[in-house]
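[step 3/7] fold_predict: job queued, chain A
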Amino acid sequence: MWSLVVEIHFYLVLPLLFLLTKPLSAKTCLWVISIFLFAVPNVVQCVAGGTTFYPEINDSFFTGLSLFCFGVALAGVDNLKLWNPRWSRGADVGWLLMLAGLAGLAWVRMNPSAHAAITPYLFSWTFAIGTGCLLGYAANPHNLRARWLCSSWLRWCGIISYEWYLFHQPMIYWSREFFGGANGGVLKYSVIIAVPLVTSLAVAALIYKNFSLPILKYGRSQKSAQK
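[step 4/7] structure written:
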């Protein structure tokens, strides 16, 4: 449910930003909106005293939108054809930042009393910046890592990723409730992880094929008919 709160904020704010920046040039609009999405949510979060999504949803307006700045910025860069092939080198750094962020978050959760309040926030942003860096591979599609990320099975996962994202979390919780704790058993832990992973993937594929794809095909046919 928490993701719906963030998405509603996004779909309320972004059209309004487009309207307010309409008099500006495309390049100026790109940087104004990207900086706004980065700066304002973080300022609001500091003033509001932080954001929580579990066990209770407490997301002040704007605070969940900061991570959208990377995607919005690079979507604008792509639209304006501002890519520089050298940016793909920064994408390689993204892998290291992602690993550092994941390792840091794991350490924080295993040692909840051994860190300051800023630490999880820092590691979360380290991971987020790493994932944003990976978008730099779009600057050089011939990069070896970019070609690997464009492999057919990963593209298929990307196509159904939204449906997979929507359904994976409840299945993880159900699996943990059904199987109970692993109690240090590697085999049982693997089952607890694998069952919801495979099940949610299958459900996502079926929903995409029978629900999302027909809607996309209908929209494309309507657009073609208008030309």
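[step 5/7] annotate
The chain has a mean pLDDT of 86.
The first helix runs from residue 2 to 20.
exit 0
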